[in-house]
Each structure stands twice: as C-alpha cells, then as structure tokens.
C-alpha cells in the first residue's frame, strides 16, 4: 500500500451497480474534480495489471461512455498512441466532470473468464475505474461505492469491518477513499451461497459456491486450511499485511483462477472442491500458492514489476516470483496436510518428467519465458513443448528444490531455503510494526547476495546456467540430492490419475509422445516425439488404433501389447477433411513417472515437507 498525500486531494467518486448479475453488466458512474484542467482531461483505464504480468486491462469491455459538465455533453476521443487513454474536452470554467459508462463482463467463456453468475460475483474495480493519466497513481484518491445484489455475502480487503451481509437497505457499500494502487488490489467476492471461516484472528476465508451443498460440510478440510496459516507463520516469521482475506469460489459457472494481491487472494476451484474432497487433490496447492505470494511477489516484488503507474511494466524474475512460490505452495500444502507427502512426491515426479520432455529448453532460456503472459495470454499453442509456456512456474520449482538441497547438504541441515524466506522475503519491520507494509522491490543481485549470506556458493553461476542458458534436460539434481530418483511404472500415480481427471486428458507422453483429450481429440503432441515424427498435430481426431475404434483403453491395449524394446502402433487420424493412416514408431510401452527412494543418505525431501508449526 502506498500512502496517498491526502492533503488537498479531492477524491474521485466511483459508484458501481454490480447487482445486474443476470446480464453481467457493471453500471458505473464517476465524478472528477477538473478545476485547473485547461480545456481537456486525459483519463485512463489501468493497462498493465500486476498479477497478470501483461497489458490485459479490460479496455475492450468499457462501453457507453458519457461525459458531462453541468449537464452538457462533452466530446471525447481516444489517444491514437495509447488506446487506454480517453481524451475528454472540457468547457471553460469546468469544475466537475461527470461520467457514466459500463463494463461488460463476459457472458460466455469464449469472451473471457466468466466473473458473474446468478449465484456468484467477482468484481475488479479496475474494470470500471477511469483516472487521470497524468498524475502518480499513489496520489489519486478514489472514493468507491458498490451495489451488490440484495442479501448476498461478500468480502473485500478494503476497510476493516467489511465482512458482512449486504442487507436490503444497505446493499450499496461505501468505502473510505483509497489510492488507485490500493483500490485495484482489493477485489470483491460476493455470493448467495456462502460460508465464512476465520482461519486466524486476522485471516478470513470467504467461500461462495454454485449451490449450498457445495460449501464445506466437514471440519477436517477447513482444519487443513487453518494449519496452512500456522505453517506459513512458522516459515516466514512475520506477516507483511495486517488482515488477509481468501476470496474463494467453488464453481463450475464462474471461471477457475488464482490471483494474488497484497492483502487478499482470489481462488476459483471446481464446484466439488469440498463436496468431493477426496478427488480435489491437485487443486489443493492453490491457496498455499496464492498465500505465499503475499511475501513472494507482492511484498518483495521484482523491481520491473513495480512501477509508478499501470501504463508499463517489465516482466522479470518470474522464476522467483512464480517458481519459488510454486515450490513453497507445494511445500506448505504438504506441511499443513492439504496434500500428503506421498502425493507431493508424485507431483514432483510428474513435474520433472513433464518438463524434461519439453525440448523447447534446447533453444529458449527459461528467463525468456517471462514474456509468455504477454505473448500468449494462456491461449492454446500449436507446439507447447517446443514453444514453452510459462515454464518458470514448474521448472522454477525444480531449480528451488535443488537450491534448498544444496544449502541443506552444505550446512549439515543447519540451514535451508526456509532461512531465505525469513531473511529476504519476511524481514522484521523496523519498530516492530506488523501492519500492512509498503512493497519492497528487489533485483537479482540482492537476491543472490542474500543467498550468499546464507550459504557460500556460486549462486550467480547456479542461476546463470539454469535460468539464462539452454540445456537438454530439466534440473534433476534437486530430486537426486533429496534422496530420490525418477522411475517409470505401468500405471499412473495417485497424483497423476487425479491430474488426468481434473484436466480431462490421458497421458501417452512418455510412450507415443502425445496427450489425448475427451472425444478422441489429440490434446498435445510432443515436439520430436514418435507422434510428431509420424506427422501428428494437436487437434487431430484419432478414428482407430490398430484397426479398432479409438478409445483410451484401446490405445492402452495397443501399447501394452508392444514388446519391451517397442514397436509400431497404427492410427487412423482425421484433420480438417483429410483422413490418414499413420504408423508410429513407439520406443517403449506405456509408462508413467514416479519417485523411488535412492541410497542411504538422508531423505531431505521428507524433511522439507515435514510440519514446522507443530500443530
Ligand atoms: Zn502465482
């Protein structure tokens, strides 16, 4: 949070009616003090949104612009050099500019992530907020108000006593004026079916769901989330925020998501996250991941990510921002019991195998994948394994596992990466001030310095080779150092079976070099693998395998019949109008990755995943 200079600043009023959930339209009105503006004011919508790492502000959804001074309509036009800037003509002597506009939220998923249903509402202030583009965002004050559907429960990190039900007569919520940066970091979650949980006196969890029976019924599931807070405290020692809110939607209607903020986070999981707890395993590192971001990414933020306004940003150090967060997301999930150590090891095996099978690292350094949010916006790519896709998350995890094991081995277990989390990402506030803290930007040199202080090692060279260089294989040393090795087995691990169900795929990556989706569709083809060499591409339909109509079981049978040294699998495939018979040279039968204990040394991974909080 940045402290706005409140002296002499008249707030811009922003009132949004978000109760039109049936049409997913946010109706906004704003008033701008324009005294002193000479004939024109330049307004802007936020373009570079921090957690998106991309110029993804919702300018395309802004509609119905109407500007008036004293009831008289004002002309506006767009800045040809920057379509996020709106130039509004002002009559002489104008004091107050009134604006009305709408933000048109997606009504079906091909327009973007669905944020509004008849039961759930996710509201992001920045979609409705125009502000002067020529002033520092920390000095612009906004006085926000929001109308919610009557009787809905809601939560928002703005203000203190803000968790309550929007009563019929007070469904218009008024908040105290805040600066633009803070407002944009405080989204609202609301819903008609809601469960409110106190995880800690300062940490709240609001859960909304499509239906009442999808809210948590048991206590054990919530107990794990409570232990998460205790484990994070044991890890970091200090909190950079005063109060924190998890804004969680269990829904198959509004979009899945995970978005970090300084004092809250937004989680969108499957509707059955709680109601079918046994099978939600692979989603359970989401809350730990977003919570870790309060320290890694929000409080300690890469310098290029932290700018004076939202008109620009440099993506950098994503292997820290997301890679270290991915690592500790999994580690904390294991420490607090959300995911068992066994499933965590299975997750690490799948991560290593997946990334080791992506030949894109032979030409593209990991650091260059920092640009992927800008390039692809997570849209499907034709050759993901060759293009790479935000690999800094999971390959980053492998790098940090290795760093952790190097420190642990080099110091006989006296120190670990946990010490870096305390010293660098959660230093004690001077004067013992434990309230919400101003972000502290950092660069790579400072991070390396902190690591060197912790354990004397060539960290500059360590990251240069893994992050800036190209290599044929994914980092494996962390797995080996931690007392395990990768093995192949004939059936998927529990983690992978859940992952396949969750993402609706069947993994033939490690035999045929392809993944099948629902309905016999090819979901992915690994660059340079057997399917690639035979001419297969993503999106093909497989009509038959070995002369039998395609099914995942038929494919599995065909692979199981192959001798150990491999053989040929014949597929009839269809792409566009063309049907072809292809012969795939498969080097081995069907196989899946797992970890196996190796050697007599200490199982560092077991120790890494062990609870620290003693809860
Ligand atoms: Zn993240």
TrEMBL record:
SMART domains: PDZ. Pfam families: Peptidase_M61, Peptidase_M61_N. Signal peptide: none annotated. Residues 512-577 form the PDZ domain. SUPFAM superfamilies: PDZ domain-like. Gene3D superfamilies: 2.30.42.10, 2.60.40.3650, Neutral Protease Domain 2. This is Peptidase M61.
